[in-house]
Design brief:
mainly alpha; two-stranded antiparallel sheet; 5 helices; 2 strands
Amino acid sequence: MEWKIDDRFPIWSQLTEQLEAYISSGGFKPGEKLPSVRDFASEAGVNPNTMQRALSELEGRGLIVTNRTAGRTVTEDAERIKSVRQGILRRRIEDFLDSIEELGIKDNELESLLRKAISERSGGTVV
């Protein structure tokens, strides 16, 4: 997993968001055992207490489960993972729309630009 840390924002919050996105996109599969707090912290280059806070947040959101003897695993609740993924998508869409609104672009112009960009990206035609 590639970590992106920006010192302008709380590190534990960034770790939480990145792990949430990674889990919801299938980077860790449902039921998969997660690395230890120390291993995660070492990989991300952060204090283990900071990583612990991020993992506790994810547990509170129902994305990971702590088992006393087996460590932490990703939830097996596919609906929970799907719901988290949709929440991430909604937030990103809202951020995108807010930035587009600042440019004064109207809905029909945005729709046309999006269709063109999708078509170019996929190499096909989008109606």
